[in-house]
Amino acid sequence: MLITELGARRGEPCGEIIQRAIDETAAQGGGRVAIPAGEWMTGGLVLRSNVELHLEAGALLRFTDDFDAYPVIDARWEGYEQPCHRALLYAKGEKNISVTGLGTLEGQGAKWWKAFRAGEMKDAARPYFISFEDCERVLLRGFRIQNSPAWTLHPLRCENVSIRGVSIFNPSDSPNTDGIDPESCRHVRITDCHIDVGDDCIAIKAGTEDARTPAPCENITVTGCTMVHGHGGVVLGSEMSGCIRRVSISGCVFDGTDRGIRFKTRRGRGGAVEDISATGIVMHNVICPLVVNSQYFCGKGGKDARVSDPNALPVDEGTPHIRRVHIGDVIATDVRSAAGCLYGLPEAPLEDVSISNTQIILVEDEPSVPVMAATQGAVTLAGLHAEHVRGLRLSDVRIIGARGGELTLIDVD
């Protein structure tokens, strides 16, 4: 169904017409709702089961920046249940839903970012761009999406999710504009995407200790993606209370991201990150290619004294665990701070970590950028620093240009 068949006109608000097209298509058993070439204006939309929202080449669907167009609902924001403006494009409990095509989704995030920076978003958090909750068989393919108010693509508690060939663009200084954040999902495939954003490019999450029934995020593949700017290329955590497991990252390029592969959690968060493989990665101009930090200051309680306590504390359900991590076939050039920082906890060391066939070259002439190490303060142009690790294996690892030595190992075997 073309939206023009129901009376939509270019350059005029047509959100009600698009929603009616979606609802009528779903009522008929499913099908495609097509947005033709040209610019179209809309408010928030809700996708239904068995409906494909298709953006034809040359189509631009512009979402209004009127806050009232996105009702406040109870949702999960950075792992916590709280009032949030509903996503620009939203679905809950639906099956067989898709957004496809070579058109563009425009989020007009600037007004949201300004309100956030001014402290005006205290009653309800900013909306995600696309958020699908408790959905099955989700396909996002081919389109460009830009200027998201907050996280861009956020599948939550979904199963069988495919994100292919999507291009994401948010300004590098835009707050919390992650690219793709699967949270507590199963069977997710992210392939051939280009991500240039103001926060983490891809962040794999599993809820916090305060989330209702945090579920695992598992069986995730990230393949053939390019990631530019952003705080991290692929990040695991910091929301990981439900566990993150069986993640494969391969054949990707990171250019100018702050970190490359990054793990972050803290005491009190609990959960485990395990069975992670990152291979065939090329990085350029990153601050630090590999960061594992079990003392990351994150969320409520992030600044409690126990988070940074250097002493071993009792192991309980709030103790995070990271184990069985393999990094291989990595090339990183013009690294601006450190070759790598691996920090476990004295009571819960990192377990079974291997790095193989990897070359890391630090910058020579440019000023270095400090990266905060978990217990050592800021470090610059350093080698690989590992602390509290059981079973660290290094094979054919070359670190070039480190000041003060290539390896610093404390409480490591």
Give the helices and strands, then pairings.
Layout: H1 15-27, E1 31-35, E2 38-42, E3 45-46, E4 51-55, E5 59-63, E6 72-77, E7 80-85, E8 89-92, E9 95-101, E10 104-106, H2 110-117, E11 130-133, E12 136-141, E13 144-146, E14 153-156, E15 159-164, E16 167-169, E17 186-191, E18 194-197, E19 202-204, E20 217-223, E21 226-229, E22 232-237, E23 244-250, E24 253-255, E25 259-264, E26 272-284, E27 288-293, H3 305-308, E28 321-335, E29 338-343, E30 350-362, E31 371-373, E32 377-379, E33 382-400, E34 407-412
Parallel strand pairs: 1-4, 2-5, 3-8, 4-9, 5-10, 8-11, 9-12, 10-13, 11-14, 12-15, 13-16, 15-17, 16-18, 17-20, 18-21, 19-22, 20-23, 21-24, 22-25, 23-26, 24-26, 25-27, 26-28, 27-29, 28-30, 29-33, 30-33, 33-34
Antiparallel strand pairs: 6-7, 31-32
